[in-house]
């Protein structure tokens, strides 16, 4: 600490780097590539999901055999060049079953997401707009929400015959309350916005207000919510099938393949391992897509969750 | 304060009534005629009709719902079709393992998740934060039974550190009890930890940007004190809410986890009930779990007023 005084000007290093008066604006890269660089989560999710969808759609062309063909002589073969993922207790080829199972899981995920979003949107808008119905509809939703979703789906499945459609319906019903609450919240906050008042004052009909001003604002949160529903529906399907209350055992859904491996897991863990990896990658892809969409569509929401 | 508690308790009544109505409708529209089942294959239509009358099954929906609700309030959940035993008794026999599993999971999850969330928020943007949140997304993406099998395979079968399956009642000693619950609790808690850690991080990020946090730091408070005393206390309400909401995940997941680890609890009972289409039993289990869930969230609401004096009603 010898030099506490300010240095004289002449000893200042002369060569301070010259900065341009105006920094060049940071140009974001354009096109798809630039978008993916700015939203890596979204990009990874979308690419992963695309791969999985391609695998599922082109399952018959990817060296698969009939996923339900029994071959008792070839049961519980370890994974090999011939049976990539091995065979299960009935000699069925697990590789083929996994690819066909992806179809069922994706179908359940996508359809549940769409159905729950549409139903939730309708209920949410009606509830947010019609004051007289709001209290009663929301109490019903509270009631449905207070039944843990998996138990609700189990109870509904117990009533009906096991089929893919019924699994979709049961999971959809369990997901509807959350979507309706979300939409209702958006509607209630939008109703108070000055521009909505303005539209009403200018003589817009209720239908016009809903379609022109309310609906467009629900798209972003609803899309994000739909992706999460898609992921959780695929998990719920596997859980329902695993405990015997889901897709009929004859249909190779990822949950059913794992349920078949349940009794042998200590000696033949691969029967569960391969469908588990594929299910987890698929759900991970959808969840990453959801996180990415959330960040891209609504930066304020991204900070909160 | 007392008024608020009373109001909040009363507000759960319509929700519980709706749940009861829903669960009752399940049995009402369930396929199969209980009168025909009881009468047996040889009975004439007149016999079936007589049994139906004697059971009161010919009365209107509302009358039957009212009577059934009365029974529920007295703790009578009906009788299982398969075993003929009272549903309440069957549930009571199986409740200890499930409650044990859920409590251990809850404690474990909160102890693990909150520090993770706080650290992730504190170091937000770093590799540590990213890997924690990456793990959280993974937690939402792997079904609970897969985590269960994975843990059991590695830590029980391969390493032989913990028992593979089974349950020991707590009356046989604390460690034997806990030993059997460690792996199931980690498996069941995986999603729950992800959920709590994420909300903790998000709320802490918001709180850490507040003026009073800067003041606390400016007056020279140790960073640990700032994080865990000042910030976490103010972030408590959303975190507790999510802990309460997440109990639904625990309930659903417990059914599956018990199946993986062969724990003779309510999950096993549920699966048996589904396989046997034992509707009164399914009804009783759904009703019981839903009421527990409603009560947990009621408790959460009441805890708010304790942790956050700003909430006054």
Description:
The complex is a heterodimer of chains A (about 300) and B (about 325). With about 300 residues, chain A is mainly alpha-helical. Chain A has a single domain, classed as Orthogonal Bundle (MetI-like fold). Chain A is about 65% helix and about 0% strand. Chain A has helices spanning about 30-40, 40-55, 95-130, 130-145, 150-160, 165-190, 195-200, 205-240, 255-260, 270-295, 300-305. The two termini of chain A are about 50 Å apart. The mean pLDDT of chain A is about 80. With about 325 residues, chain B is mostly helical. Chain B folds into two domains: about 10-75, no CATH class; about 95-305, Orthogonal Bundle (MetI-like fold), CATH 1.10.3720. In chain B, about 80% of the residues lie in helices and about 0% in strands. Chain B has helices spanning about 1-30, 35-40, 45-55, 60-75, 85-120, 125-140, 145-160, 175-210, 210-220, 225-235, 235-260, 265-275, 280-305. Chain B is globular and about 85 Å long. The N and C termini of chain B lie close together (about 5 Å). The mean pLDDT of chain B is about 80.
Helix-strand blueprint:
The complex is a heterodimer of chains A (305) and B (313).
Chain A (H helix, E strand, L loop, with lengths): L30 H8 L1 H18 L36 H36 L1 H15 L3 H11 L4 H28 L2 H8 L4 H37 L11 H7 L9 H28 L1 H6 L1
Helix pairs in contact in A: 1-2, 2-3, 2-10, 3-4, 3-6, 3-8, 3-9, 3-10, 4-6, 5-6, 6-8, 8-9, 8-10, 9-10
Chain B lengths: L1 H28 L4 H6 L5 H11 L5 H13 L13 H36 L4 H15 L2 H15 L15 H35 L2 H8 L4 H12 L1 H25 L5 H10 L3 H29 L6
Helix pairs in contact in B: 1-4, 1-13, 5-6, 5-8, 5-11, 5-13, 6-8, 7-8, 7-11, 8-10, 8-11, 9-10, 11-12, 11-13, 12-13
**Corresponding CATH architecture of the largest domain in chain B:** Orthogonal Bundle
CATH architecture classification name of chain A: Orthogonal Bundle
Order of SSEs of chain A: HHHHHHHHHHH
Residue stretches of chain A low in confidence (pLDDT < 50, at least 5 long) are none
């Amino acid at each position: 600490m010898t030099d506490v005084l300010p240095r004289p000007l002449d000893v200042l290093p002369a060569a301070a780097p010259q900065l341009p008066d105006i920094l060049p604006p940071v140009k974001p890269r354009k096109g798809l590539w630039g978008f993916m660089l700015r939203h890596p989560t979204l990009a990874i999710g979308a690419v992963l999901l695309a791969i999985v969808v391609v695998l599922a759609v082109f399952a018959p062309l990817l060296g698969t055999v009939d996923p339900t063909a029994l071959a008792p002589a070839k049961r519980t073969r370890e994974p090999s060049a011939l049976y990539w993922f091995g065979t299960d207790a009935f000699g069925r080829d697990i590789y083929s079953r996994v690819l066909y199972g992806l179809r069922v899981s994706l179908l359940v995920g996508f359809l549940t997401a769409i159905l729950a979003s549409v139903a939730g949107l309708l209920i949410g808008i009606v509830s947010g707009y019609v004051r007289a119905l709001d209290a009663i509809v929301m109490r019903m939703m509270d009631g449905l929400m207070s039944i843990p979703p998996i138990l609700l789906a189990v109870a509904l499945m117990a009533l009906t015959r096991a089929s893919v459609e019924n699994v979709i319906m049961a999971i959809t019903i369990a997901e509807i309350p959350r979507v309706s609450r979300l939409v209702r919240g958006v509607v209630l906050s939008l109703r108070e916005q000055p521009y909505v008042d303005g539209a009403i004052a200018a003589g817009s009909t209720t239908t016009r207000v809903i379609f022109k001003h309310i609906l467009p604002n629900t798209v972003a949160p609803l899309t994000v919510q739909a992706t999460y529903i898609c992921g959780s529906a695929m998990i719920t399907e596997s859980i329902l099938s695993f405990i015997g209350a889901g897709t009929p055992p004859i249909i190779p859904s990822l949950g059913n393949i794992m349920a078949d491996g349940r009794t042998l897991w200590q000696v033949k863990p691969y029967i569960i391992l391969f469908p588990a990896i594929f299910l987890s990658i698929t759900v991970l892809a959808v969840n990453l897509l959801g996180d990415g969409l959330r960040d891209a569509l609504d930066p304020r929401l991204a900070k909160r969750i | 304060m007392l008024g608020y508690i009373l109001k909040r308790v009363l507000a759960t009544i319509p929700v519980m009534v709706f749940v009861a109505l829903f669960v009752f409708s399940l049995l009402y529209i369930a396929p199969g005629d209980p009168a025909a089942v009881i009468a047996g294959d040889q009975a004439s239509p007149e016999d079936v009709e007589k049994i139906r009358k004697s059971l009161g099954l010919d009365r209107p929906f509302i009358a039957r719902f009212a009577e059934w609700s009365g029974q529920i309030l007295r703790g009578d959940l009906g009788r299982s079709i398969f075993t003929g035993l009272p549903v309440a008794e069957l549930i009571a026999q199986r409740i200890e393992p499930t409650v044990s599993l859920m409590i251990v999971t809850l404690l474990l999850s909160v102890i693990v998740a909150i520090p993770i969330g706080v650290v992730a928020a504190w170091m937000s943007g770093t590799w540590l934060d990213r890997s924690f949140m990456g793990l959280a997304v993974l937690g939402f993406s792997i079904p609970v039974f897969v985590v269960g099998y994975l843990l059991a395979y590695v830590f029980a079968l391969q390493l032989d550190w913990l028992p593979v399956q089974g349950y020991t009642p707590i009356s046989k000693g604390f460690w034997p009890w806990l030993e059997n619950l460690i792996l199931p609790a980690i498996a069941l808690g995986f999603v729950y930890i992800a959920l709590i850690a994420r909300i903790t991080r998000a709320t802490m990020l918001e709180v850490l940007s507040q003026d009073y946090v800067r003041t606390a730091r400016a007056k020279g408070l140790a960073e640990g004190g700032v994080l865990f005393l000042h910030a976490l206390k103010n972030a408590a309400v959303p975190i507790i809410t999510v802990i309460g909401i997440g109990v639904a995940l625990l309930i659903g997941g417990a059914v599956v986890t018990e199946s993986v680890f062969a724990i003779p609890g309510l999950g096993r009972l549920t699966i048996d009930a589904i396989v046997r289409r034992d509707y009164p039993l399914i009804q009783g289990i759904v009703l019981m779990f839903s009421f527990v869930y409603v009560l947990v969230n009621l408790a959460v609401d009441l805890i708010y007023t304790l942790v956050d004096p700003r909430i006054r009603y």
